[in-house]
Amino acid sequence: MLFGRKKQPAAAVRKIPVHLGIIMDGNGRWAKKRGLPRQAGHVTGAQVFRKITKYCEKCGVRYLTVYAFSTENWRRPQDEVEAIMNLLRQYLKESLADFQQENIVVRFIGSRDELAGDILQLIQEAEASTAHKTGMTLNIALNYGGQQEITAAARCLAQNVAAGELDPAAIDEKLLEQQLYTGDQPPVDLILRPSGEYRLSNFLIWQSAYAEFVFMDDILWPDFKEGDLDRAFEEFARRDRRFGGV
Ligand code: IPE
Ligand code: IPE
Ligand code: MG
Questions:
Q1: Would you say the pTM of this structure is higher than 0.85?
Q2: How far is the CA of 73 from the centre of ligand 1 (A)?
Q3: Rg, Å, the chain Cα set
Q4: Is 90 exceeded by the pLDDT of residue 97?
Q5: 23 near 203, Cβ under 8 Å?
Q6: Relative to the alpha carbon of 23, which ligand is closest?
């Protein structure tokens, strides 16, 4: 009898994060490098966002949260804020039909109070028309800040206590977490940030307690390609996640 041949190693199984967060950063610098107005970076950045969203769904990501506009981004010049809001309008109008074909649940996270009425309407339509889908959940963080989110959650619990509906002793991490925009979703596994900034900038600060971070300092968001996501997934697969254990 022949000696059993050594089995071929199983095809490398890709370890894909269940919940991926992307800080889409570097649009302004990308435009500046080309002598273009910052808005041009946002236009290309929005196209890249569409492409990468589709790729994430194809790769098997179950929850994708993208940082589109922070609670601090209102500090930017008014014409830049308007350009970003116009891109969002355009994206939502064009995507409403797309959303029907794709199996993606679209959700917006962040405070809605400061948003324009027509944007609110489009957001509600996008959410309502995709709520029944069974594929990847896409959370678009718009007017989002992690500190604002946790503050709103605390306020909500405090109101319940004041109304006599909640015993303060019953407040634990789980209860607070349920009040967050992502309360029904798993925590974030991997956060990606291109552009060379090594910070969270108020993104998913609660949800990222045990997230892995991949800061890609060799690329700006408008240049981001599918292969860059593969690179990040490879890095993620090499990480040893211990969650405080051994
Ligand atoms: C990210 O790119 C997009 C938004 C914040 C809306 P930036 O506009 O922050 O680009 P840089 O960081 O100035 O290059
Ligand atoms: C974070 O990027 C917000 C988004 C990408 C939407 P910023 O460019 O606003 O963050 P800072 O100012 O560099 O921290
Ligand atoms: Mg930036």
A1: yes
A2: 9
A3: 20
A4: no
A5: yes
A6: 2
